[in-house]
């Protein structure tokens, strides 16, 4: 789609307007943002459009569209999908060798589990290996409740954060201000970084990781603007 507007504005309801016409989501709802900060950032994406609209350069708009069109109509189902990670979090599954990797995982992952223990009064059962091991029902329920308490706009950035990192616990820690984005990113890539040190970096894997980092950073930015 070619750019057809000159001016971008935000009305009193937080709706982005192009030459006084409301922007609409793919589902034809008005693109209304819940905070002034997020509305300003989304409007900035529209102001930055060149001759052609490139959705890949507008990640905040894409997340807002998803919150309105995909999450809000069935928020319970969306939250349940994220909550499923409470029983299969990356942080539960540990290496038993070599000792250096075991130590790295413990250093990066144990503080996140300790935070969640204190924050939610839960118990975890980490295991060696990758075979699924069910966590205590109370733990799964309390982490699920923490997800389901959020509204559509707060949920939508959690989805890429959880799926990219593999950890709901770490994502909740970031969402609640207990850690920063780099801490979560580094914790999620302990194993990958270890392999790269041993065998070298693969160019395709490096490109894929950079793409994921951009998606992750957009989600973190979106969450910070709510």
Map the helices and strands.
Blueprint: E1 8-10, E2 16-18, E3 21-22, H1 36-47, H2 59-71, H3 75-83, E4 93-94, H4 99-120, E5 127-128, H5 137-148, H6 152-155, H7 158-165, H8 168-175, H9 181-188, H10 190-199, H11 203-224
Parallel strand pairs: 4-5
Antiparallel strand pairs: 1-2, 2-3
Strands of the widest sheet, in order across it, are: 1-2-3
Structural category is: mainly alpha
- Report the principal-axis shape: globular
Which value, in Å, is the CA radius of gyration? 20 Å
Order of secondary-structure elements: EEEHHHEHEHHHHHHH
Count the E strands. Answer: 5
The share of residues in helices is: 55-70%
Number of helices: 11
User: How much strand content do the residues show?
Assistant: 5-15%
Oligomer: single chain
Whole-number mean pLDDT: 97
Major sheet characteristics:
3 strands, antiparallel
Uncertain residue segments: none
Query: What is the first-to-last residue Cα distance?
Result: 29 Å
